[in-house]
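Tutorial sheet, problem 5. The two components below are modelled jointly, 611 residues in total.
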Amino acid sequence: MNTMGWLVKREYWEHRGGFLWTPIWASGVMLALTIFGIISAEVVGSRVNIQGGIPWDRIAERLSAGDIAQAGSGLDVAYFALAAILCIPLFFVLFFYLLGSLYDDRRDRSVLFWKSLPVSDTSTVLSKVAAALLLAPIISLVVATLAYVVLLVLICLWAAVNGINALPAIGASHPLGLLGRMLITIPVDALWALPTVGWLMFWSAFARSKPFLWAVLVPIFALIANSWLGMLGAPSLKHSVMLNDIVFRLLFGIVPGAWLQGDNLDLGDRIREAGAAGNSGVLTLIEPANVLGLLTTPSLLIGVVVGGALIAVAIALRRSRIETST
Amino acid sequence: MSAVIEARQLSKRFGKTVALDHIDFSIESGRIVGLIGPNGAGKTTALKAILGLSEFDGELSVLGFNPRTQRPQLMEQVCFIADVAVLPRWLRVGEAIDFVAGVHPRFSREKCEAFLANTKLRKTMRVRELSKGMIVQLHLALVMAIDARILVLDEPTLGLDILYRKTFYESLLSDYFDENKTIIVTTHQVEEVEHILTDLIFIRDGKIALNASMEEIGERYSEVMVNPDKAELARALQPLNERQIFGKSIFLFDGVDRSRLAELGELHKPSIADLFVATMKGTYA
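Model answer (structure tokens):
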């Protein structure tokens, strides 16, 4: 394995809890809620709505009604929901991972050990970018896929108990197509996230204490100052531009699929819309043509430039900033 | 012999404080150099410059590399242990070995495992479960398994008990050091390193107060224990330092003829600690 491989592996060793165990626990909870839902529905006959985002009702009803195509699309929504809900913990994991990435080892002085090895600062910083933008989302997607397999087993068992054959519905779903499409979103997410990554890593490398406060308060203060200037009639940016194109891009760009709808961060809404869109809803939502079309938008390209510049500054800071004030 | 480290007009300031004030020195291969000075004298600053960990003014060449711009290449040939407990607490012993083996072309896994076999360390242990002494054992095992040309130790035994301190220097000397390697060590425990050093650099207020080999020091400096009746005679020879013990005066002389001193009283070889105290007189005043 080359140096970069070892560096990414080191990030995984250090953050196994966030990168691996967090999605495992989160999808475990979703599956457990679904099982509780099934059991209470079967035993009490009640429609207790605790299914952790998985549209069990719909799948069950369509299966019972023999509407194979709709049941299949319900399965697609379930797979997408499993993957999408894991994006919420993934956001928090990445946010704090990036804030600590160039700060924690300075605080505990272990940076002196890492710097005693023949590894350039550029490789070190880029390995952390790669861990955040490729390794963590891929692990999250793999965990979601395994959870979906478990869900399929549950559905088959439930269906068998009720004398229904669930296999045609699975045949009518698109797990591989969906997996492929979700995989394609990972590099696009990564490019979209660069401003946030650069911003958080910049403060992580720069701050002598409390990188969180700097990274969060500076944009919020800028937002308030901008509104205030606007009120005074002084030159200022439009509020929506400041909020969506600057503050959100600097702090929330690492939310996977944050580019889906510019100003709507509610994943649940999106999944419901996608589900309501019918058979191929979720598939259309992340249609490769739409996803890759984002690559040529100025919004993404400007973000890549800004993010790249911030990461370059973080590398330069990493070279000479070693002490923290604690 | 060739110099492995060459510094010319090396300077560093933090705001208004001058940490290193245009110092020149060169260190040759196969030496064990003690860099000794009071707190805040600039020892760590000098080491950081050598290791490419901080910016500096002036010229500095380490194994022909410029530490400012060539740290990754330099670190293939230079190892350092900066004080104890800088190994990350989450790291497992086995992961540490795997990682260093992965990124360091001159690391020998066999050597490292052989060193660790003599300790209580197990591969599944995390650094946070280890005592300070065990962390140093791990760090030392990692470093000694690297075939490097320069080893820099910055207060390597700080906070360790006497057993670990003793074995630390013993294993360095017996299992690691040879004529192709150079060791630079800073410490406050001067007595501990006294017998292993070949060269001594005293640093004070960012300047070099003394830079000599141990043989030169043995020739230049002598200590005489003088009875009170001859004390005035001794003072006339301008001693560096005078202290009282059991009613006698002990004088430290720099470059005064031995035969003259022998007439005054009993001659001794001064310890580095005494030499240090005499040289640094008035530092904190």
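Marking note: Chain A touches chain B through 25 residues (CB under 8 Å). Full credit if you identified this.
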